[in-house]
Amino acid sequence: MRHYPINMNLEGRLVVIVGGGRVAERKAKRLVEAGAKLVVVSPVLTGPLALLAAEGKLLHLCRVYQPGDLTGAVLSFAATDAPVVNRMVVEEARALSILIDSVDAPRESDFATPAVLQQGELLITVSTGGASPVLARRIVEQLEPLFGSEYSEAVALLGTVREKLLTEKVGNAYNDPVFAELAALDLPTLIRTGQRDAIDQILQKLSATGATSDSVGAGKKDPS
Q1: Residues in contact with 158: Cβ distance below 8 Å, sequence separation at least 6, in sequence order
Q2: Considering the domain boundaries, does residue 159 fall inside one?
Q3: What confidence tier does 202 reach under pLDDT thresholds 50, 70, 90?
Q4: 155 shares a domain with 101
Q5: Taking the model in full, what pTM does it have?
Q6: What ranges in 34-108 are assigned the alpha helix state H?
């Protein structure tokens, strides 16, 4: 395995994309959703990128790349259609110890962005290490029918119960088996089939906090 898998908190942190085409567009969408402070350096932008800039969700530097554009970034992307420019971006990133993804040179990159299936806080990622992004996306498409919106609610429910237990400082001797039993339950199926009473009974039985699906904010959504 060449890459180390990690989920990174980019909220409010500077990320720079050099390039304004379709690849940059795909990267930018996820970065904006993650709350990154995004700068895109490119003479032109795709329509969706231009819209993000107009909405103030990214800063567009309307020009070609210049040395120094990566200063202060925690992540960077070389995503132009000019290999020479991409190589210059990689060299600057190396000099500044900034992680870089060069879209046309996976072997020169510090990381690769995976294909993603997201349901709320549930993230399922698929990576081929840059060898075949198309295959990674195809695998995600195959997974989509298996992980619907009920997983978003199940994860939120489990997370809030966990936070309640930890906040109330119930002893680890109690917490550990509760966490294990909650994780083993098929909460997504119970949510999908609308079995709210069963969920509440389970939570009240296992949780010292007396939590219910209402009290943890799961929300009683129509299972359809």
Answers
A1: 182, 183, 187
A2: yes
A3: confident
A4: no
A5: 0.76
A6: 47-54, 83-96
